[in-house]
Every structure is written in structure tokens, then in C-alpha cells.
Amino acid sequence: MNIFKHRISDGKGPFLSGPLPVFGDHKNLYGKNRDGPPTFHRRGDSVAIADSPGGTGPPDCTGPPQNTGVFKGADPPEKNVNNQHHSRTGINNNITSKEENKMISMNTKRLLALAFTSCLAAMYSQTASAVAGDVISNTATMSYSVGGVAQADEVDSVNFTEDRVINFTVAEPAGTIGTVSAASTGTGGVTYEVTNNSNAVLDFSLTVVQAAVDNFDVLGPFSFFLEDGTTPGYQATEDTVGVTFLDDVAIGGSVIVHVVGTMPAQADGDVAIVTLVAQAAESAGAPGADITNDDNGNISPGGTASDTADNAGAMDTVFNDAAGTFDSTGAADSARNGQHSADDSFTIVAAQLTVTKTSSALWDPVNEDSNPKSLPGGYVQYTIAVANNAAATGSADLTTLVDDLPVTLDLDPDLIDGVGATPAPTNAVGDGVRIQVLGSTRAVTDIFCTGAADPDGCSYSVGPGGIISVDLATELVVDAVNGYTAGELKPGETVNVTFNVIVQ
Amino acid sequence: MKNLKPSILFFVSLLTLGVFSSSASADDEVIKFTNVAMKQVVKIDAKGEKTIEYVEPKTAIPGDIIRYDIGFENISDQEVSNIVVNNPIPNNSKYRDKSAEGQDTDISFSVDGTTFAEPARLMLKDNTGKTRLATAAQYKHIRWVYKNPLPPGAKSTVSFMTEIKKPGDD
């Protein structure tokens, strides 16, 4: 504690004749100047209205305080003096000698003291947010009279340093909560948000831990992508790749990071849990050194405990992070260890396809359409059904379906309907293959194509024993309106490929 | 020199004789003025009972509650009057509503250091020009007007509390 004392003024000189040096609106507050007793506003008086703090400029504190020798009579009181504070207030640089001080009237001194205090307050009030290492300074000023004579103000300050609290979170950001679907052997990215709630800018080093309680481990090494904000969510071609740590995360700031890995060959529905662990690190350096201990005996995994004597005049570090899921060693992530973590998961989504081939005699030259048999010259209709189980979690992206006919069969180029003595083409002459999608919301679900060698997606090598090829990625076109990609067969849907063969 | 007591005259005589250095002259002091910061520590014992202690702010982090005690003692043999204590809210801090105390004082606040009023009448124009009642967190200054003279040997204390701003506070 610092004690600050002042002498009694002799009460002579201009100090007596002038009005009360104002620190604030004394006239409004008291109604009288300091020659009379103070009176306080009573209810019913006009209210006091101030402009928005941002609207009224602070006192001009840009220049050095003049004649701050006002403090020479009793040195400016300080506790745990910090040089930074001195440089901010300019106290030291402006102390005048005692002789000079004597030449300053007490009235002037009071005004200067008040101006200094106002300046100090205005400077500090401009500090928008608390930052570790700041000196928090409180200055009280007391005015009084003795024998009706106003005396020099008493001014006393108390200082202490704001310590650094390490407090941050790793979490799934809103909109990305839940498992991420990934194709077997494909890549996928889970998304986390790292938020720095500390009162200091920090770097964060990143570690991915994979739990042993799931179905499989994602194949490493993982890549970290920073969300660039163009399109929310992970886009391999858009977000910033090549990040190995989070650099200079601002106070109160947050960063979205995608953790990207490759799936092994896994079955539909298999789950891999992935934990992102962030470790607090110094902002200086790229990356900054991990902060593996605070000054209260708390450590990160692998850190060395340090419980230094707390010092009100210096910046201490205090871990204040909450418990997460796993720490960087895979053990439970405890509170106040300089690390925080959260889980996310990949779930393999895959189609469950079945392929069924059926045939039936359609027409023969003897019986025609009445109980036909597979006689030479007769027609047999084949249907290949590709079904994606309704219970599947993923669509199938169908490509090419191929059927290799035996030499005893040849493709019916017109896909006759088998009706009557002279059957007609089901659709049109030359349309030898029919593709129908069942259970689908596609705009087009009934398609014909030719067996000719053309770009329509269907082909047949001419002559008995040929090969029928149907490119379903071409036939089942993109249907963005209804949510289909090319060749996509959603769970519960079936595609039937129908053609006729002529028995040789 | 009408307000000076005999001891001061004696001091001046000694000073003339060069017995004391000028910096040692202190026996005509009137007020012992102190300003102390203490951090609030809430402890909960095994029974779940809460106690509040105040300790030196050796460790001070955002969210901590700090109490400032400003003491003044009349160490002269003359009555002191017209006592006004003025205290800007310290940097990195926001005032805790209703925390300012001071026996026999009228307490007023200001958002700009110029206009002081009691909380119920302290208005603030916002950025749109609308007049609103200032919130405690917007107070920038506190003023205590001590209503009585302070006799020789008497002392009193005023106090207030702040919270160290957290990230995201204005």
C-alpha cells in the first residue's frame, strides 16, 4: 500500500479567488462552487444526458503532460510499478524539480493533476478489451478544504498486471454436427471450430487421435484444410490446404478447420471416430512453441510442472480450458491442461446391390404368342434387374452393364412386343434395348436405345454370340431437379434392362 | 500562514538552519490517502457453504472481481471539509452494478467524466441519437461526495468493485 500525503495550502494567491477546478461538471452537480457546501441533485432535477462514449472525443492526451511536477511533492503512488505503465502515462518523463514545482501555483497544480487523471482515464477507457500483460491501473483523486480553503488534491494509484488465461474450445460448428458420410476407399473431411477465449493471441498445434471403440481407423496422414468462407463446409478445391497448425488466432476469434483423411475399404455403415486435439502455443513464431505448463502447476501431456510465486506486477499464465474428449496422447482430456478436443466421425455409406437375370419365351413361329417355346427362330425376352436395397445408406453410381450372349442367341434389334402373327417393335425399329427405373423420382424412367455402334450408350457386336453393353451412366442422365447424378441408383430403386434374343 | 500550526513554524525554522533536507518535510500533512486493490475469491467448503475472501490480485484474469478501497484519514488537527473523491473506472475493467459504497456519501456516476448523476437519472445518447438509461457497464467514473466534515483523527473509506473484461466485452 502506498500512502500519499499533502501539505496544507497557505490559502493565498490566485487559488482562493478562482472557481473550483472542475473535474466533471461541479456547477451542475453542486449548484455552487466550492466556497459553499456541496448540494446533491434531488429527484425531479433535470436528468444528466451524455453523448455516446464514442461520440465525444477523449481529452487530448497525445502530447506529454505539462508540468507534471505536481506529483513531485509526493511521488506518484504506485504499487508493483511496471515500466510499461510509466511509458504509457508519461509520468517519469515529466517530473520537474522541487524548485520548479514550488513555482507552480497550487491551483495550477490541481488543474494539472485533474487533467492528468482525466487523460489517464480517457487513455485507459479507450482500451477496448482486456489483453494479457496489460497493467490495470486505478487512480483515485480526492479534493477537500481546510478552514474553507481548498487544498491540493490527493491522488493515489494502484496497479496490477492482467495475467494470461489460456481458455479455448474445439467443437463441431453449428451446421456440421453429426457424422460425415464417406464412401469406402474415398476421402472425407470432418469439420471443427477452434475458438480462442483467452485474453491473448495464441497459436494452436493440432493432433488427430483415433479412438479404439469404433469400427475402423481412417488412413493417415490427415490433412488440415482451413475454411476459406466461400462455400461453408469442406471443399477440397476451395479451402486452404497445407496447414499444419493454427497461426495467431485472435482474442475471441475462431477458425474453422477441416480434417481430411482417406477411408479404407469398409462396409456400409461402418464408423470411424476422429478426435481433433488443439494444444495452446505461443503466438510468436510459426508455429509458436507449445505452452505445456502454466504458472499454477498445471501441465499439458509431456509438460513440466511449474508453480511459480504469483506476482501482481508480472504476467502469469493460467490454464483454464475445460475437459475435452481425448488429449494428444489418447488419454482422457482433463481440464486445465492447455489442450481441448472434440470428436467427430465418418460413416461409410455404400449401396447394397443385387443383380437378377430372368428370361421367358416371348414368341415363336409355330405358337406365336400363345404359350410360345424357345424354338429356333423364336424370341426369348431377358430382363436384368439391378436393385439397390432400400436399407442401404448410399446410392450406387452405375456404370456399364455387359451381357455376353452364347453363339446360339442373337440380339433382336427391334425388341418386338411378341403380340400376334407379326409382332411389332415395342418402341421403334432399331430400338433394341429398354431401360426402366422403378421406384425412382427421376423425370425420365423409361428409355430405349439402339444396339448400333453409336453414342447412345448401348451397343451390340453384330451377329450370334455378341456382347450387349449398356452404359447406365449415359442412359441415366443427371437430373439436378430431382437430385440425381449420372447413373445414380438410390436405395430402394431398381433399374431393369430388357432385350430380346432370337434363338438360332 | 494563518493555517499553519506551531510545529510547522518549527519545521520552517529547522529548514532555514539546514537541519532537514527539503524532501523530509512532512509534519504538516493533512490527509493520509490510500488506494488498495483486492481480488474477490469465492470458496465453497465441504458443506457447500460459500465464503468470500479478498486477496492481493497476484493472479488476475478476465472475469475476476476486483474491489478497490479508497481510504482517507484526517491526520491533521484541523477539520477537513468539502471532501470529494473521484475515481475513473480502471482500464480493462467494467463497473459492477450497485457495488459503489461509502458511508455518509452521495455517490454519482458519469459515462463521460463530465456529467455526473445518480444511476436512475444517468442517461446516454446512443449512436442513433436516442437517449437511454446508461447501464452500469457503461459507467466510466464514480464520484463520492462526503456529506460531513471530517474531524481531526477521523477516517473513512469508499469502495467499488469491477470485473476484468473478458474477450468479447466491449
Can you give a write-up of this model?
The complex is a heterodimer of chains A (504) and B (170). Chain A is mainly beta. Chain A folds into three domains: 14-162, no CATH class; 166-349; 353-503, Immunoglobulin-like (Sandwich). Chain A has six helices and 28 strands. The radius of gyration of chain A is 42 Å and the shape is elongated. In chain B, a hairpin with a 5-residue loop joins β1 (31-44) and β2 (50-55). Chain B has one domain: Immunoglobulin-like (Sandwich). The radius of gyration of chain B is 21 Å and the shape is flat. Chain B has one helix and twelve strands, in the order αββββββββββββ. In chain B, the strands form three sheets. In chain B, strands 1, 2, 3, 5, 6 and 12 form a six-stranded antiparallel beta sheet that branches. Chain B has a four-stranded antiparallel beta sheet with strand order 4-11-7-8, with no helix packed on it. In chain B, strands 9-10 form a two-stranded antiparallel sheet. Chain B has one helix at 6-16; strands at residues 31-44, 50-55, 65-74, 80-88, 93-95, 101-102, 105-110, 116-117, 122-125, 131-133, 141-146, 155-164.
Total helices of chain B: the number is 1
Compressed to H and E, one letter per element, the order of chain B equals HEEEEEEEEEEEE
Low-confidence segments of chain B, given as residue ranges, are 1-27
Mind describing the biggest β-sheet of chain B?
Answer: 6 strands, antiparallel
Largest Cβ-defined interface: A-B, 90 and 80 residues
Total domain units of chain B? 1
Q: What CATH first level of chain B would be assigned? A: Mainly Beta
Shape of chain A: elongated
Question: Mean pLDDT of chain A, as a whole number?
Answer: 78
Assign the structural class of chain B, choosing from mainly alpha, mainly beta, alpha/beta, alpha+beta, or little secondary structure: mainly beta
